[in-house]
Amino acid sequence: MAEPITILAIESSCDDTSAAVLKNHKVLSNVVATQKIHKEFGGVVPELASRAHQQNIIPVVDFAINEAGVSKKDFDAIAYTKGPGLLGSLLVGGSFAKGFSAGLEIPLIEVSHMQAHILVHQIDGNNAENSKPKFPFLCLTVSGGHTQIVRIDSPLKMEVIGTTLDDAAGEAFDKVAKILGLPYPGGPLVDKYASKGNKLKYLFPKSRVDKLNFSFSGLKTAFLYFIRQEIKENINFIDENLYDICASIQHTIVSTLLDKLQKAAFETGISEIAIAGGVSANSSLRAALQKLGTENNWTIFIPKFEYCTDNAAMIGIVGMYKYKEKKFAPLTSKPEARLSF
Ligand code: KG4
Ligand code: ZN
User: Fold this and answer.
1) CATH number at residue 79
2) How many whole angstroms from 187 Cα to the centroid of ligand 1?
C-alpha cells in the first residue's frame, strides 16, 4: 500500500485565519480563528484583516499541528490559498507557506479558494452520511464573494457554467442584514430570525437574468426602498416584523438560487447535486434543496457546517489532489486577489 500523504494547509483569504492537517482524505485537525474586529465596522476592513492574520497565523498553525498529533518532519507538502480574496490577507498565508516550504524543503502547492469550497465533498466525513458525489456533479457555490454554478468533471477539472453578474448571495444576506441594523456578518442572523417568521408575508422581486447567471443588486435596492417606505408609516416596522422580513427575503434569495440550479441540472442532465460555501450553512437553503432533490430524483450533497464557511481543510483536500499530480509551485508563487478557476 502507498505511504499516506500528510499535508499542512493554510487559508487566509478573508477574515478567517485557518490551518489544517490532512492525512490523505482524512482531516486530522482544522483550526479556524475568526476575526471579531470587523463586527463593529459592519464589514471586513482589509487592513485590519491582514494585521489580524499576521497575529493569528503562527498560533493557529501551531495549534493545528499539535491537535493533529504530527510533527513538522511528517509533512509531504504545504498548500495555501492563492486567491481569490483580499490581497493583504492572502499575502500573510502565502508568505508563511513559502517560508515553511523553503525551511522544511517540502513542495509548495497553490490552491484556488473556489475549487476548495467545492472539493470539501471529497473529504472523509464531508457530510452526515459520508457520501461522496460521483463525477460529473454540479455544485452551487455560494459565499460572501461568489455565487457560481460549477460543473465538476474530475477533482481538478471544473467549469463555471453560471455566475453572479453583481453581488454574491452572501453579500445579499449581509447587506439586507445591515439595512435591518444587524451586525456583520448578517447571514447567520437572518437565518436564525427567519426560522420564526412567515416567508410569504412580503413579496420581493426576483431578478430575471439570462442563462444560468444571477443578479442580487436589484433585490438589495428593492429591499432598501421597501424598508424606507414602511418605516415612514411605522417607525417600529423592523422591530415589530423582523422575523417575517427575514423569512421573506431569505425565501426570495434561496428560491432564486434553486431556480437556476434546477435549470442547470435540467440542461446538463446531471443529477449529482452539491452545495458549498458559507451560504450553504443556511438552514432554509439546506431544507429546500433536500426537498427539490427528492422531487427531482437527485442525489444531494450538503456539507457539514464546519466545511461550509472558510476553513483550511478544504485547501488541504485540493492540495492532496495536486500533490498526486505533482502540481507544485515555485517559491516565486504569489497570491492573486482575482484568481479565476
Ligand atoms: O465562504 P465564506 O465563509 O467566506 C467567503 O468566501 O466569502 O462565506 C461567508 C458568507 C457571509 O456572507 C455570511 O453571511 C454567509 O456566508 N453565511 C450565511 C450563513 N452562514 C454564513 N448566509 C446565510 N445563512 C447562513 N446560515
Ligand atoms: Zn469562502
Assistant:
1) 3.30.420.40
2) 6
CA-nearest residue for atom 23, ligand 1, is 187
- Note whether 26 and 147 are same-domain residues: no
| pLDDT 10s digits, 202-228 | 999 998 899 999 999 999 999 999 999
Distances (CA, A) of 287 to 45, 80, 283, 290: 33, 33, 6, 5
Residues 181 and 252 grouped into a single domain: yes
Task: Classify strands 299-301 and 272-276 as parallel, antiparallel or unpaired.
Answer: parallel
User: Measured from the CB, is residue 250 less than 6 Å from ligand 1?
Assistant: no
166 and 252 co-located in one domain: yes
Atom 22, ligand 1: residue with shortest CA distance: 187
Residues 6+ apart with CB under 8 A from 300: 273, 274, 289, 290, 293
For 231-284, write each residue's pLDDT tens digit.
999 999 999 999 999 999 999 999 999 999 999 999 999 999 999 999 999 999
Rounded to the nearest angstrom, the distance between the alpha carbon of 185 and the centre of ligand 1 is: 7
- With a 6 A CB cut-off, is 185 part of the ligand 1 pocket? yes
pTM of the model: 0.96
Q: Which atom of ligand 1 approaches the CA of 146 most closely?
A: 7
197 lines ligand 1 (CB under 6 A): no
Q: 129 and 122 in contact (C-beta within 8 Å)?
A: no
Number of domains in the chain: 2
Q: Domain residues for 37?
A: 6-122+308-324
Judge if 160 and 287 occupy the same domain: yes
Shared-domain flag, residues 143 and 250: yes
